[in-house]
Amino acid sequence: MAEMNDRSNLESLELDQFWMQRALELAQHASDEGEVPVGAVLVRDDEVIGEGWNRPIVSHDPTAHAEISALRAAAQHIGNYRLLNTTLYVTLEPCVMCTGALIHARVKRLVFGAHEPRTGAVESVFTILQDPRQNHRVEVTGGVLQQECAELVKAFFKSRRQKAGQ
What we know:
This protein is an alpha/beta fold. It has 5 helices and 5 strands.
């Protein structure tokens, strides 16, 4: 039985890494547009139902975070604002707004890459998804491809500082 559990955990980790890789590709779109490089993929039954990347500057919309864009796309795709039995993969720990949206959409699971020490609302600054007063629980797995996700953000801000210094 333990061997079966180990295999299941390995398959789950490989699947998480596969989808996080897609989120990293989407984060690159944000970077290319001059946005903070965050990408998000919403998956149900091994199928992408929504994707997004950060676009608040380009779209003049403070709510245009990667997570919100993926949730909106998925809701349109399935024709329902309840996104039951879904997993959201996002390259950076979500903020307060995005964690609230995950709860309202009834997302089953969140998988994130890098921690966000300034605004992270899952583990770093706040623990909104673990608050027992919430009416829905979201399972959380953090740190998937953490180094790759963190490096993308660090490289983006390093590049911006260098451009500002010129």
